[in-house]
Fold this protein.
Amino acid sequence: MPLYPRRSRRRCAFTVLLTAVALAAVPATAHAREGRMADASPTVVGVSTLPDPVPAGSTTQLRVQIVNTGPDTTAEPFRIDVHLPDSSVFVPGNADSTTRLVFPPNCTAGETAQDVACSFPAGLPSLDSAIVLLPVQVSEAAPPGVVLAGGRVTVDCAGPGYPFEIAVDC
């Protein structure tokens, strides 16, 4: 499966709309304020889990969407780092299980099972998106109804990152 597959017109239109919304929320860079074109810039625009909320002790699929905010195709590979909230861990499994699917397949755990790094090759077109899929297990000890805060996604270790939470089912 290619990392940047061709998409239908409807899906491309949705991606462009989502990107426009994301761009409206992203502050201008110094380059843009000075009237210069910025380089290709992969940006995290959303993090979600399925199921949501997650029953304690079960596995959820964490989905991170990254959009190249352009204006050019990414010329260099880029890395996505995910730090999971307390009481949750990365649990890679076999590719046959839909709840344990890891994409891209090069995602690996860091020093702890709460840290995951995924690499993407150069070539993400401007205003197109890439997806990270990670199986995450919520601790059986997580209290029902609590929100596990402290998750963060960064691109190439730049900036404060994109915060996210995982809700635990009642």
